[in-house]
Amino acid sequence: MGLTADRKAGVKVADDFREQVEAVLAGEDVDDLLGVVIDLSLAAEDRVWAQECLLELAIHEHTDVRGNALMGFAHLAARFGAIDRDQVEPALHAALADDKAHVREQAEACLEELGWGPPQSGVEG
């Protein structure tokens, strides 16, 4: 049994999307990278692949790219109902120590959005 014409068209669109994202990731245009974070978070059909891309962007040299990638995890989790906590949570906690306030704030907001909360420091139970 082969793919229907609609399914073939959907596969082609997904393949094109992936190729376009990977081309942007291979470049260093910050505006393109900021846009691809949104695309990955709100339009990618493969959660695992999108998450891997966001993990890569979460350590990018540009502050806004890092910060936006961190919030992308929350959007991805909202769309798919889950995200790989074992991979994402360490990246978010590492970002809490970033030199840039924007990145730290985005990590904190994402942790809260995911219901994981930021780590409590100096608080004894």
Give a verbal description of the structure:
The protein has 125 residues and is mainly α. Helix content is 71%, strand content 0%. The protein contains six helices and no strands. Helix 2 (30-43) packs parallel to helix 4. The protein is globular, with a radius of gyration of 16 Å.
CATH class reads Mainly Alpha
Helical stretch tally: 6
Instruction: Indicate the percent of residues in helices.
Output: over 70%
What is the second-level CATH architecture? Alpha Horseshoe
Count of distinct structural domains? 1
Unreliable stretches (pLDDT < 50, length at least 5) are: 1-10
> Total strand count, please?
0
Q: SS-based structural class?
A: mainly alpha
Main sheet record: none
**Measured on Cα atoms, how large is the radius of gyration?**
16 Å
Reading the helices and strands in chain order gives: HHHHHH
Mass-distribution shape: globular
Mean pLDDT, nearest integer? 88
